[in-house]
Amino acid sequence: MNYCLYCDKGFYDPVNWRSVLGLADEVHFCEVCSSSFERIQGEVCEICGRSFSLFPEKYRQENRCNDCLRWEEDDKWRGILAKNRSLYVYNDFLKELISRLKYRGDAELVNGFRQELKGVYRQEFKGCVAVPMPLSRERHYERGFNQAQLLAGLLGVEVVHAVNRVLHEKKQSKKSRRERLEMRERIFMLGVDEELVKGKSIVLVDDVYTTGATIRQAAIVLKEAGARSIASLTLAR
Amino acid sequence: MRFVSFFADGKTLAAPDALKPPDVSAAPVPFYKLPVLDPPDFFGHLPFSHELQAFLSGKLLSFDELPYPMDMIHEHYLHGCLTYVKGIAVDVGGSFVCKRCGNDKPRLFASFSCFRCKETECVYCRKCLVMGRISRCTPLVRWCGPQLDWRVDDVALEWDGDLSAAQKKASDQMVSRIGDEGELLIWAVCGAGKTEVLFHGVEKALKAGQRVCLATPRTDVVLELLPRLRKVFPGVTLAGLYGGSEEKSEGAQLIVSTTHQLYRFREAFDLVVVDEVDAFPYSYDQSLEYAVHQAKKGNALLVYLSATPSRKMKKSASLGHLAHVRIPVRFHGFPLPVPRFVWCGNWKKRLKKGRLPSNVVDWVSHQLEVKRQGFLFVPSVAALHQVVALLKAGFPGIEGVHAEDPERKEKVMKFRKGEVSIVVTTTILERGVTVPFTDVAVLGAEEDIFTESALVQIAGRSGRSKDDPAGDVLFFHYGRTNAMVDAKRHIEGMNKEAEL
Predict the structure, then answer these.
(1) Which interval of the chain is the signal sequence (chain A) (predicted)?
(2) Residue B313 belongs to domain with CATH number
(3) Which ipTM value was assigned to this complex?
């Protein structure tokens, strides 16, 4: 008997040829919780990785969404983030789950995503250095851990803490889109020797991609330090 | 968090790394790695914060839950007013035990690399996480300074209502037990008027300077009880606790709380009344039972209230292990409505075909005709959606409510006001919601979810008012079950005992 990592309901592994042969991945979530995840599939925006099937056609031009077009029109931000890929749609269920992970501090939950995250990394970011999105010291102490660091740790590749957060978060989730996009102050600084970043392909790892503003703020710091390309991988979009 | 230990006056004490005495050079370690600590000496002549005393007395809290600066808390520790205890202990078998919720299941502990204590595997409890994380590296705090003292001269019951003979018998029994250690079950039918039965016993306890807690599984009940108690005990400090409550009356003598909030209390109460002791989630969650037992003092009196005690509780009552008193009759003195069984064929198959059993449809149209409201209980959320869709197509004033329904409160309110005639619901409304002039029907009464106690509670929704004491209760079924027969027998038995 397994117990669901999220709701603690007992369940049995599905029986199929793969499981009989011992090839199946470990199942962490019960059937009900598993079915609440919406995996991002099909056509996505080539930059931010959002699923085109989920929003009106008029916000799309060819392979990009309007939000990304706006980023790319801006001289400062053009090409800063090569692409983002996310595992799941940030639906109500995932919001609950991520809030339990971050605000309740249930670090264990990340272990339910190891295989899936590794899979996307292999497909989309092979060879990239993983850099977790940092927290400020205050927030890090309060939470006891950094969820982005835990997620990056699942990938099984080199993790470099290349960026530091120098400005304490006013909770991002409480800021408006406008406030986030303005970004007048500098919130990140390079945290390692430039040599560790120069010429490297980097994938920033975080829990959620919302407007992409925070991730681009970190990306520009890496770009300035000479990184070849910066992309991002998140659990939710 | 990291602590250092040091010797002072022959005792082993501890201090957070940031507040260690200047002459201490020991390396900081996570709290659980400290040697066994001695209780610090109490310095009675030094002043202490009455606010902190009120906040912390009878409780077990983490630093994060205390809205006071660390240096102030630590000063009280050095003065012997509080102690630091492990949040997660290791029992003799080597497995972890959460000192807040009592969890000892290995799968409900996990670890992470902790920024606070710098351990790569800092263990935490996943069971009581919603109340704030308890990890191994951080202590819990207990008050051990001067006891709270309430002004009991002002305590008086201001209530001039009358108790029925059966209520009085139970009330007297409770009054006579106040001050004793042990347990008492008050087994009262739905609509017996349980709250009034408690008044005299609670008054006696409060007058004796005891700290009293009324615990109930549901927030709605806390909200309903608070104003009533405030009215009848005007001279008493009273606090209501439930998830998200913001009331600030720390150190209150009388506390009305959801059972969940009791996790934060330790050896606090001389009298604990546990309402609906059989109700979900109480009966299904052993750790809530743990919470109740931890919250009361060792020599406290524990009073259980229930209309439908569990089999185990009934058995120990009948064997004489559990003192009990019964209130077999409703406060208005009329008998409980006895359910009638009505066969309705294979209703699941019919639902699949998009139809309802004809006698169920007849019942709904009859209710609308005679202008009486009705509850229609169904066994699952899936069935609920189907039944609501089918009924809405044919009748006005139909609404469906289930536990996850975001409009649950509004819909129940509409039903109370009479704007909804028939409410289709799962077992979530089996308790608590009381509306006069209401009849009750169950569709699929043979389903497992309708246990004896669920059916007795459901039947108890009708005939609650003295102006309409004889509601109708129908169990539509596809084959009668023992639970249905037992529920009917239970109700008839109570009526017989009351000689009605």
Answers:
(1) none
(2) 3.40.50.300
(3) 0.89
